[in-house]
User: What shape does this take?
Amino acid sequence: MKEISMYQVDAFAEKLFSGNPAAVCVLEEWLPDELLQAIGNENNLAETAFIVPRGEVFEIRWFTPTVEVNLCGHATLAAGFVLFNLLGYEKEVINFYSPRSGLLMVTRTEDVLFLDFPVDAVEELSTGYEVVESCIGVKPVELYRGKADFLAVVQSEEAVRDLQPDFARIAKLHARGLIVTAKGEEVDFVLRFFAPQLGVNEDPVTGSVHTLLIPLWSRKLGKEKLVARQLSKRGGQILCEARGERCLIGGKARLYLTGKITIE
Assistant: This one.
């Protein structure tokens, strides 16, 4: 039998049982894809991150219960937390390499971890408003498209908080998922993220969508440093900074469990 070390971490969490839970599995070598997917399904979390050390770099991949994804922020934050706080990583920067998203870095300032990710391309759309309105019951005031997601700007924080998503309609969008956002009342902007296409109806806190949100809200508000809040049931606060072609996405993390996966 083979044992795999696994850690479950609440990412973008001020306290335990908030933020977004992710599993982190530390491997010596890559396992077959079907086994990685089976573990992701068994964990039944929004994402399971698998990391393999390669000298000065850690290769990283992410799986939902149903598919491998191109980029996951909260599980990368969780992986950084595990390396810094549990596995004795002593350098200032963790370099992750994703075959699908390239170089991703994690740093820490006291107990806050920061993802250093490339920004997404933001394209404003002139059509599709009615389709998105049918998905969320609210007409967007602006509509954008990134590489993977649709982004709907709505009138107010209240509209984001109260909207009732139609997951069956959202699942038919030709995208990874749908971001809904508005200017915040106590923070710079708020959001929710829906991705039934990935087996995740509503994600509690989503790091990767901020590669699209940060350049948009930085331009709208005329500031480089912003604070966001994801208005899911668990909720989470995200510290944001626009840095040209890259951005910083920051938050705290809390350890929930450590364990071993046993594979025959």
Remarks:
- The chain has a mean pLDDT of 97.
- The helical segments are 33-43, 73-85, 129-136, 157-162, 167-170, 210-221.
